Amino acid sequence: MISKKMKLVMAAAGLTARVGKTWTAVLAMTGCGGSSEKAKSGDAAKGGIPPVIRVGSETTFPPFEFTEGDKYVGFDLDLANAVTKQMGSKMEFKSLGFDALIPAVQSGQIDLIAAGFSANPEREKQVAFSDVYFDQNGFVIIVNKDNDTIKDWADLEGKKVGAQVGTEPVKLIKEAKGEVKQLDSNSQAFMELRAKTLDAFVLDQPVAMYYLKQGGDKDLKIVGTPKPGVGFVMAMKKENKELQAAVNKALKELKANGEYDKIFEKWFGKAKK
Question: Does residue 142 carry a pLDDT above 90?
Fold first, then answer.
């Protein structure tokens, strides 16, 4: 029998990743009191917020979003579910490629992005941001354990370095004069790193630490000093100010009532105060 821990390793390594396909799942939030749920839904409709919020993410980014068996799980999914519920709506979830998320919002295919989405100026030109909901981020280099030539960012010069397409690490690798190979998913990068078709891989520190904790540290290691990162936000269509305000209000309420802390602790342990 495969343990839960091994399943997580397999998910992170891409053995359960579903690259190139779009999967849709409705995460229905069934309340105990039918009348109160109807009231919430009515309030949402009255305020211009739809009763179903379509949330998109790229699901090879543990512990934020990934697959466990036949389910989508992770911090972002739990938080987005709580946010939509707090707004009196239900969440419909769609798994998309990371580079497809902004076009999906702009075209109206989805309403909200919850995908470990960094708040950078380039993206802000295309979509509206929520308030930052995760600020303990940074970027690190991962190499094979037998690699003694790459010890910090300066050593990436001239090396073949992987990064997920359209993410902050692409820019960092270029700044270090590395040869960037953009990949569809983190799981693909881990596989190429192990196959030694990549010299190194740059990614978000929480994801790297989670992956190594699940068994990846047997043959991989983090090197160098982490680069500071910007906070993660949810994103929506630029002109959808109503949804932006509702998401921000829900995030504040979840932090005030302790629900945010419960979700954070589930995936990362107790938050540092």
Answer: yes
